[in-house]
Amino acid sequence: EIPQPKFKRVMLKISGEALMGDQGYGLHPPTVARIANEVKTVHDMGVEICMVIGGGNIFRGLAGSAQGMERTTADYMGMLATVMNALAMQSALEGLGIFTRVISAIPMDQVCEPYIRRRAVRHLEKKRVCIFAAGTGNPYFTTDTAATLRANEMRCQAIFKGTKVDGVYDKDPMKHDDAERFDTVTYDEVLAQHLNVMDASAIALARDNNLPIIVFSLDEPGGFRGILAGQGTYTRVH
Ligand code: UDP
User: Fold this and answer.
1) What is the pTM of this model?
2) Domains of the chain
3) ipTM over the 0.95 cut-off
4) Is 55 a known ligand-binding residue?
5) Which of 234, 201, 204 is CA-nearest to residue 217?
6) Residue limits of the Aspartate/glutamate/uridylate kinase domain (predicted)?
7) If you write DSSP's letter for every residue of 92-155 in order, what string do you get?
8) Which H/E stretch holds residue 53?
């Protein structure tokens, strides 16, 4: 029996590091496959799925510029890293029989589609998973901001931010035993208390468009589907 989803169309944002498994770098194919499976269970419910994957497992602009690289060049390298991750996820999803499109903010026609909003909407209506790559296409932004931007453009009902923990805590739960999880928290509280959800520009963009952010654990098998079916623990930023 397939539970009724609470949402019709969602954005799933994961960091590039979510794809590297226990390695310190790059892509770990079994981990990519595991996440693709999580996406499949939600796709099977009939939910329309957008994805944005970061690039931090391969390259981060800030790290490059800290080593003396020109910042915008380093940021473009970071954006290119997200395209590689998107292609890896596309391959894994297609291995499960799910039609996907990789849609890049920076046109690279031999590799994937350019971003054309109406075309992306049509893919979603046809139940194709749309993986938005190359961030916003602009340096000085992050893939969290890209996820928020695309979620707004695609009229997603929420952003699902998959992390290592099951929500937003008042302090790092990996370091503090007494860290407490919020069931709900407002955008302004996240900003004022510097809570670790997404960067400030992404939070502001979500807030100004009333786009809820659901922070949940990607390590919990079945967690993504569970939350869409109305179960599990998570934090709702609204
Ligand atoms: N990036 C960018 N503009 C964007 C999105 C990303 O310049 O709109 C670059 C930036 O250098 C960033 C890198 O791409 O460090 C990888 O993205 P991000 O750090 O968001 O990846 P994550 O931390 O989610 O793995």
Assistant:
1) 0.96
2) 9-237 (3.40.1160.10)
3) yes
4) yes
5) 234
6) 8-217
7) HHHHTT--EEEEESS--TTTSEEP-HHHHHHHHHTTPEEEEESTTSSTT--HHHHHHHHHHHTT
8) strand 48-53
Atom of ligand 1 nearest to the CA of 16: 25
- Closest CA relative to residue 102, chosen from 94, 153, 9, 111: 111
The number of residues in the chain equals 238
- Whole-number Å distance, alpha carbon 172 to ligand 1 midpoint, is 22
Q: Which two tokens stand for residue 216?
A: 């949940």
120-172: pLDDT as tens digits? 999 999 999 999 999 999 999 999 999 999 999 999 999 999 999 999 999 99
Farthest-apart Cα atoms in the chain, separation: 56
Mean pLDDT value across the chain = 96
Rounded-to-integer distance, Cα 100 and Cα 127, Å: 9
Between strands 158-163 and 184-185, the pairing is unpaired
Q: Does the structure show a pLDDT above 80 at 47?
A: yes
Q: Are 87 and 112 in contact (CB under 8 A)?
A: yes
Annotated ligand binding at 56? The verdict is yes
Ligand 1 pocket list (CB less than 6 A): 15-17, 54-56, 60-62, 75, 78-79, 81-82, 135-136, 138-139, 141-146
Q: Which pair of structure tokens corresponds to residue 69?
A: 């690289």
DSSP state of 17: G
Q: Please tell me which residue, 2 or 82, carries the higher pLDDT value.
A: 82
Q: Which amino acid is at 11?
A: M
Q: Are 57 and 19 spatial neighbours (Cβ–Cβ below 8 Å)?
A: yes
